[in-house]
Fold this sequence. Notes:
The complex is a heterodimer of chains A (about 110) and B (about 120). With about 110 residues, chain A is an all-beta fold. Chain A is about 0% helix and about 50% strand. In chain A, strands 2, 5, 6, 10, 11 and 12 form a six-stranded mixed β-sheet that branches. Chain A has a four-stranded antiparallel β-sheet with strand order 3-9-8-7, with no helix packed on it. Chain A starts with a strand and ends with a strand. The relative contact order of chain A is 0.34. Chain B has about 120 residues and is mainly beta. In chain B, the strands form two sheets. In chain B, strands 2, 4, 5, 6, 9, 10 and 11 form a seven-stranded mixed β-sheet that branches. Chain B has a four-stranded antiparallel β-sheet with strand order 1-3-8-7, with no helix packed on it. Chain B is globular and about 40 Å long. Classes of the chains: A mainly beta (about 110), B mainly beta (about 120). The interface between A and B is medium-sized, with 24 and 30 residues.
Amino acid sequence: GDSVTQMEGPVTLSEEAFLTINCTYTATGYPSLFWYVQYPGEGLQLLLKATKADDKGSNKGFEATYRKETTSFHLEKGSVQVSDSAVYFCALNGASGTPLVFGKGTRLSVIA
Amino acid sequence: GAGVSQTPSNKVTEKGKYVELRCDPISGHTALYWYRQSLGQGPEFLIYFQGTGAADDSGLPNDRFFAVRPEGSVSTLKIQRTERGDSAMYLCASSLAGPSSYEQYFGPGTRLTVT
């Protein structure tokens, strides 16, 4: 079945450092790919998405590019802030309206 | 507008008891999903409704778990004879129907603790 593997955390960075969180997937067909974020005490929020190969999703300074050849969707940000501290989840679904398959999550802590 | 809401936010129950968890989706969203998130893990799919019917219940772990959505809006997840292993955060999400409706909007979750 479909699956998502993301780098294990926790990841601790200083403010303004560069962030990469790796995500690879296994799926039949051409899934849509997502990054969700869970801030402390809050629910899951969609951060960005890409629905086809070579698409780049971006939001709040975060970016991820759908790489079909490497089955990857790595999350990047050029300069993290303390407010980016959260748990980040990579996810996919095979088609609109179908359930999401999530990775285990990566906890990011950004220190001033 | 109002997002997905879930009640209660916390539920503590004794082993063997019955519990109901409620989800109010975003108005107009025809698809509704239940996920379970254990500590340190990503959410895992339980069941998905399209309208009133369960389109996919393959994620329900056993027959102690059941969910309904009788009027195509509010959904209730029901767990019978609770076990300590059922302790987790239960998340509900909703989305619009249609070929371009990929985004699922999540509620804040219900934290269930079985003692």
